[in-house]
Structures are given as C-alpha cells and as structure tokens.
TrEMBL record:
InterPro entries: CTDL_fold (IPR016187), PDZ (IPR001478), PDZ_sf (IPR036034), Sulfatase_Mod_Factor_Kinase (IPR051043), SUMF_dom (IPR005532), SUMF_sf (IPR042095). Pfam families: FGE-sulfatase, PDZ_2. Residues 551-626 form the PDZ domain. GO terms for molecular function: formylglycine-generating oxidase activity. Transmembrane segments: none annotated. It comes from Fervidobacterium pennivorans. This is PDZ domain-containing protein. It comes from the Bacteria.
Length: 657
C-alpha cells in the first residue's frame, strides 16, 4: 500500500511540474468539446498541448477558441478578448510567443507571455472594409499615453506609437502591438513632451495636424511626425504656428482665409509677414502706416482660432469676438416682457463658448473622475452603478445608455453645473455672453435671423446636441440656443437688470433666482427665465465659457481628478473569508473605466499592500502615503494578486475619457 501511494504521489507531482512549465489553457474544438493543458509549442498549423494524457498535437483548423483565463467559454470563434475587452476578429498567425489577429480596424500582434489575453478565436469572420486613405486629426495631451480614437468611438491606449505603411502601430503596456489602418482613425493624441518640435497646421477642411513642417515646393508643405507624413497645398492652410527663416520667407498666414484674394486680405498678410516674434506667443509688427479696422486706428490685434477642442474634456468651443452688440428685446416686438427692456448696446470681451450644451457623456466623465461631494445632482439620463460587497449594495460609479451619451445633460441644478465648471476651469456664461453668442451683434429675434422657422429642439424628447446644427445656429456657430433645454447662466436674476447693470461685461452676482435662457419658450432669443438655484429640472442644461486670453492656459491645466479611480475596502476577517484574501491591506472592489488604476492594470480582487513602499492597512495609511502627490506623479503600488506579489506603476490623476 505504501508503495502504491508513493508511486501515485510521484505521478501527481510529475504532472504538476509538467503543467507548471507552460500556462494552463482550454482548447475549444469546433464541435464544442474542450481539452485542458499547457501549451508546449504552437505555430500557424498546430498547437502542441501537454495534458494529463500526454502530449497532443491539435491542428489549428480544428480549433474554435483558446481560453487563457478562467471564465466563460466564448460561444463564437470569431472574437477575441484582451484585458476584458472583446473584439470581433480571428487568429491569422500563431507562434509560441505571439499571435496575430485580424479585426475590423487592422490587426494586433498579441504578446502571449503577457497577462492580457483572455481568449482567442480561430474561425474566419467577415469584417468591414476600411479605406487606406487617412483623414485623422492630430491633437496633443498632457499625459504620457498615446491615444488613438477610432471612427466607431473605440479608444486604444499605448506607450509607443509609430507608422508602418498603411498602419499606425501602437504598443500597449503588455507589449501588444495594435496595427491600426489609418482610415479607421479619427484622432491621434500625442503627449506634449514628445511634440516639442511640432507646429500646428489647420487645413480648410477643419483637419488639424501637429508635426514638423518643411517646405516641400513653392506651393506645398510637408507635415510629418510619429503618425506619418502628408504633403498639403499652401492654399489649403488656414492657420499654422510654423514660421520660416528670412532666407525662406513663408507664405503661411495665420488665420487668413485664402479663398478670395482681396486687397484687405493681402494687406493683412503683408502685416503678418512683417511680424517679429517676441515671446510667449506674442509677436510685434512694425507698420509703415497706422493700421485701421472699421475706420478706427488699432495698436493691438488679437489672433484666436475660430474653433478649439479641449483635449481634456472633449468640449468643442467657438470664438465670440469682443465688441459691442445689441442686448435686449426690440420694444416693437409683440408680447415683450419688461425684464427684456430696454434694448441697449453692451460690450463683452472676447470669449470661447461651448458650441453645444454639455453632453451626457461629458457630464458622466465628470461624475466618474472628479473629486466632488455626494451633493452633486447626477442628471436625468445617468444611473448609479452598484456592486454587491459583503451582501450590501454599494454605489461605485455611474452609467448612461449609449444612445443618450450625445444629448444635452438635463435634470441638474445651478450648483451641479458650477461644480462641473470648477472641475475643468470653465465658467457658466454671463447673460450678456450667452445672448451675444446666441444672436450676434445686430439685434435679431432668432439666432438665424428675423424669420421664424419650425425646425428646432421642441423639448419633446432627447435630441443629440448636433441634431439642429444646420438650422438653430448663431452667427458664431453656436448650436441650439433657441430650442430646448433651457440653459443656465452665471447671473442672478433681477427684473431691472438691464436698467441698472453696467454696459461693459455686465454681471449680476446677487439675488434669489438665477437666469435661464432659451428662445423657444417665448418665441424670441431675448426671453429671460428665473430659475431656483437648488432645483433640478428635466428641461434645464448648461454650456460653458472660457476667457479668450486664458483659454489655452486653461486647457493645459490638469483636471481636478481622483488620483486612482478605485473603490476599496479595508481587509478584515469578513473580506478574507468572503473573497479568499490572505494579505492585509486594501481590497479593490471596483476599478473605474478609464481611470489611472485601470490604465495601469489594477484589477478587481487585487489587494493593495503598499504604496510607494509604505505599508497600507487602512484608508488613513493610504491617504498619508498619497499625501502631497499631484496629478501626473508616478506612484508604485505593491499588489497581492491571488497570492502573487507584483508592483504596478500608476500615473496619478490621468484619466482616459
């Protein structure tokens, strides 16, 4: 009997050693049967599996899927999963160290030795064709990650980026390489620190590119970067920060439309060519004669882009130039309220205003990432996300239906709108800013003119913010100011505001109610609506503004984000028993999508035992370890993951929206 036990023990130990040489996987055959083992060898023709029955060579043509992690076996062999994210596609090349999968946007070379692979499919799938022609835009970001935004809204994040033929190659933290067809890309975001020699070029199609600019011919320029290179015609450039040497005088003129060569444009171009760069984005022009605009001599010309996108939040802004406009209703209009009178000329300084109301997606990002209190109203379209922890429901995040992400956020109040602004460095528009942005300077009744129309947001359902951009649009390109929802302004309401406030940048800072604005309520853009600040209404939204002089400084500042984006609990006896935890520390119960923790690879079920070498067994320990840390700093978290201790570097406060 002893001999039998000894032989059996030796056999079991031998099998354990055999299985430990590779990584345990499950092969799913095309008939649905499965086989467990470890991969000893593999190529595009077969997979050699070590099993309890010995080595088995399986033709790839017989395999539907290979599952690398415990979990649900995929029902289809036409998909694969990396780090919990599923893609439609299939394996086209296989070796012991890597697999190449084909998917709709290109292909991925997957590092099989990493911990990122959930499962791979081997059945060929029909995939949509993507053009090789590229139309993507290039933007800059403050974090250290390269971000590729695809035309379907998917995001691919990596630590390295380069070009490879028709592809943009992105390498992620697991050493997986994503080869993305250029035609599948909408935006490429490049870290500022890798773009120090880049200039900005804006084309007349609206396409923006950051790269190294060189003169290609008398009429063309080459723009190149890690993303590749393009050659563009000089006449297609409407703006560039590029400036050539005097030996090679540039014909690129800042913010001068090239379409029509009039005397005025040529004289402006001549002046700009005489510009001498000073510093900090300032240039000096030595003029031979006084420069006049609208018959008035000027000594300073401010040059601003017509439209900018804040890379932190995704909010698109349009410029409203400073100057005088007619504010208030025309007394000859019918049914005008007393609080809209008298009509008068008011001056406002140049500012940027969001082209659309803040969307559900943009507000949802704020709720997830910001360091806000529980008093913030979540909005009509947004739902809390709860998890079950030790038998209790715990709110950990927020979500919204995908078809509502691009509609205006509603069901919020003044304090919540202001909290969003504080998070991003924006402000609510003053009433004067809102009205000028909505109607221009000439005192018109509607954003589009003085003739009524029926196509606008009637408030009967949630419309996308760009639904009416061809009809309800102001002279400055601001969309949906006439239609619902009602929009919050910064001013407090006063019935006699137009009689007592100054005519330059007016703002009323005291009162019981705040001002709401929308034209559709009364049939004119000048209507003023008093709102209770604390009340959340399903017909109220907001948009945001930035001072034109400060805009580029604001969008470079970090958002007031949570440093990690984790819901964690102190490990106690109940946690140890319920979740099979051995270590003392903080148990990760939830990791927010797009958070610094998720981007770094932290997972639900991890136990954080140290932060920057300091042992953490309580929330107080964690707060002390992170004390003094700011957004962008690197912290090293020591993690117990299923009994294996690993270290993960986290870039604090940097979120991917």
């Amino acid at each position: 009997m002893r001999t039998r036990i000894s032989v059996l023990s030796i056999f079991l130990v031998a099998m354990l050693l055999l299985l430990s040489e590779g990584f345990a996987i499950i092969v799913v055959y095309r008939d649905g049967s499965t086989l467990e083992g470890t991969i000893e060898d593999s190529n595009s023709n077969y997979v050699v599996l070590n099993t309890t029955l010995g080595k088995i060579q399986i033709p790839v043509s017989n395999i539907r899927s290979i599952v690398f992690k415990n979990g649900t076996i995929p029902q289809s062999g036409q998909e694969f999963s990396l780090s919990g994210k599923r893609y439609r596609g299939y394996v086209t090349e296989l070796s012991k160290d890597y697999a190449v999968v084909t998917t709709w946007f290109g292909k991925i070379k997957i590092n099989l030795k990493s911990d990122s692979v959930d499962f791979l499919g081997f059945e060929k799938a029909e995939l949509p064709g993507i053009t090789s022609e590229s139309f993507f835009q290039v933007e800059l970001v403050l974090n250290d990650y390269y971000i590729c935004s695809l035309i379907n809204g998917e995001m691919i994040v990596g630590l390295e980026l380069n070009t490879s033929g028709d592809y943009i190659a992105v390498v992620d933290s697991y050493k997986n390489t994503f080869f993305i067809l250029k035609g599948a890309l909408e935006y490429i975001y490049i870290p500022y620190k890798y773009a120090k020699s880049y200039d900005l070029v804006v084309l007349n199609t609206g396409r923006k590119l950051y790269g190294v600019v060189k003169k290609f011919s008398d009429t063309q320029y080459e723009i190149s970067g890690q993303w590749g290179k393009v050659v563009v015609n000089q006449n297609d450039i409407v703006f560039s920060t590029y400036k050539e040497t005097k030996e090679q005088p540039s014909q690129i003129v800042q913010y001068v439309q090239p379409a029509q060569q009039t005397t005025k444009v040529e004289s402006t171009a001549t002046l700009i060519e005489k510009a001498i760069y000073d510093k900090d984005g300032v240039a000096t022009i030595v003029a031979d004669v006084p420069v006049k605009v609208e018959g008035k001599e000027v000594r300073k010309i401010n040059i601003y882009p017509k439209e900018i996108v804040d890379p932190r939040t995704g909010v698109t802004f349009v410029l409203v130039p400073g100057g005088v406009f007619k504010m208030g209703a025309d007394a000859s209009w019918r049914n005008v309220e007393e609080d809209e009178l008298p009509q008068r000329e008011v001056y406002v300084s140049s500012f940027y205003i969001s082209k659309y109301p803040v969307t559900v997606k943009q507000y949802l990002d704020f709720l997830k990432a910001s360091q806000t209190g529980a008093s913030i109203i979540v909005g009509k379209q947004i739902n809390p996300v709860e998890i079950d922890f030790l038998g209790q429901k715990v709110r950990v995040s927020y979500s919204a239906p995908g078809d509502l992400l691009n509609v205006p956020i509603t069901g919020i109040n003044y304090a919540s709108a202001k909290a969003y602004c504080d998070w991003a460095g924006y402000q609510l528009p003053t009433e004067a800013q809102w009205e000028k942005a909505a109607r221009g300077t000439d005192g018109r009744r509607y954003p589009w003119g003085n003739e009524s129309q029926t196509k606008y947001n009637d408030g009967r359902r949630d419309y996308p913010v760009d639904e009416f951009e061809n009809v309800d649009i102001s002279p400055y390109g601001v969309v949906n100011t006439y239609g619902y929802p009602i929009e919050l302004c910064r001013d407090y309401y006063a019935k006699d505001a137009y009689k007592k406030l100054p005519k330059e940048n007016p703002l009323n800072t005291t009162g019981t109610y705040v001002v709401g604005r929308a034209g559709a309520v009364a049939g004119r853009i000048t209507d003023r609506i008093p709102l209770t600040p604390s009340e959340s209404r399903n017909d109220v939204t907001f948009r945001v503004v930035m001072d034109a002089e400060e805009a580029f400084n604001i969008i470079k500042k970090p958002l007031n984000n949570k440093l990690l984006g984790i819901t964690w609990f102190v490990v106690n006896e109940n946690v140890k028993k319920q979740y099979n935890v051995k270590s003392e520390g903080l148990y990760v119960a939830f990791v927010e999508t797009g958070s610094p923790a998720q981007l770094a690879g932290i997972k639900t079920g991890d136990v954080i035992v140290k932060i920057d070498g300091k042992t953490v067994k309580s929330f107080d320990d964690a707060l002390k370890a992170l004390s003094g840390k700011k957004q962008g700093d690197i912290s090293i978290l020591t993690i117990d993951r299923g009994g294996k201790v690993i270290e993960i570097k986290v870039r604090l406060g940097i979120w991917l929206f």
